[in-house]
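are you around this afternoon, could really use another pair of eyes. what follows is a protein written twice so to speak, once as letters and once as structure tokens for the fold. i want to understand how the tokens follow from the sequence so walk me through it. anything you notice is useful, everything is just below.
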Amino acid sequence: MLQVCLNGARSRAECSHLPITPYELAAAAREAVAAGAEDIHLHPKDRDGRDTLESAAVAAAVNAVRAAVPGVPIGVTTGAWATADPQVRAAQVRAWTVLPDHASVNWHEDGATDVAAALLDRRVGIEAGIYSGTPAAQRFLDWPESRQVLRILAEITETAPQDAVHAATDLLSDLESVATPILLHGEDTAAWPILRLAASRGLDTRIGLEDVLHLPDGTPAPDNAALVCAARETIQHSRGACPRCTDPQHC
């Protein structure tokens, strides 16, 4: 499975064409799915372009994207940078009026189990974010409900490619006892090496402007769809144009 991560906690200062508004997220999702993305991860933003878990913003983003790509699973963040207090984060999840299909919970953050419990109560799938270089893996494995998550996000935080590959190998070893599907991904200069590693191991992976702003050849990515197209080509060992892409301008 190839997921597209449309925007992340980035801002327009980092990426002038970052999708922020519900309309922009919907357009980006439509293009990314046409290019071959099978699942969507996004960060709802407030009017100032900052991540938020407020009900109205989550509803607007999810509704817009769901209308643009009906039937494609949509997930959102619950990162602590959006709301520092874990009890408030859990309360915000419980107040959502429109539910995403899944939401990521970072297990190195305080209150992860409280946020996860709120998602389980609302029957929202959980992507368990396990950052390399943190005690997240053991914390997650010690959680009694760990088998109830939708998938594990094995998130490699090292950006030097060789270091990232070593960290990914170690993290996957730490998680080898779990039967839950694993989505492995990296960021910035390690995004493409980790995507190749995920493909070689038959794991789910993701790509998008949250993770990387450049194509494999180092040129700036014009949009999420171009990244998805490049990722599909990489995954399929450069067999040519993306077989599911409906827009030849992206390939």
Summary: The domain at 2-241 is CATH 3.20.20.70 (TIM Barrel).
